[in-house]
Amino acid sequence: MVNDVIREYEAHLKKAVEVLRHTLATIRTGRAATGLVEHLQIEAYGVPMALNQLANIAVPETRLIVIQPFDAGMIKTIEKAIQNSDLGINPSNDGRVIRLAIPPLTEERRKELVKIVRHRVEDVKVSVRNQRREAIDQLKEFEAEKLIGEDDLKRGQERVQQITDKTIGELDTVGKEKEAEVMAV
Hints:
This protein is an alpha+beta fold. The chain is built from four helices and six strands.
């Protein structure tokens, strides 16, 4: 029973780390990356779809993203979605492809982005702490129902805390890497 709770807890934390990685990939740095736009939601054929389902996305140069829609009729829709997003990039098209020139970030904008990165890392840490509390409450419930003993409860709580500490360290590392990427000129 204790192992089931711990396995479930570990699975939740792995998902939390992946969600953070995915979220941070959408934060713009000075370099072009497909992660900036590939999950951008586009209203296509009456249904919201991710951009990577509607077009090929490539990075031919360090400061350029090229988007080639599978259906040329979608160019205007994709362009409008990019303009309405929080990327702050103006798209240009030649009728076949959309080009996004990534301008270099100002020092002020870099600092704002670092704050956003820290905020998102902290949000995931709060989520991890809530998951820890739930796992420990579940273990305490088992002990109250006499399904596990006091020793099992103690070991389970220690294991949950070890996993939490490891995950928090991993989240910090992911955040620091993204901060360094944002601050790199």
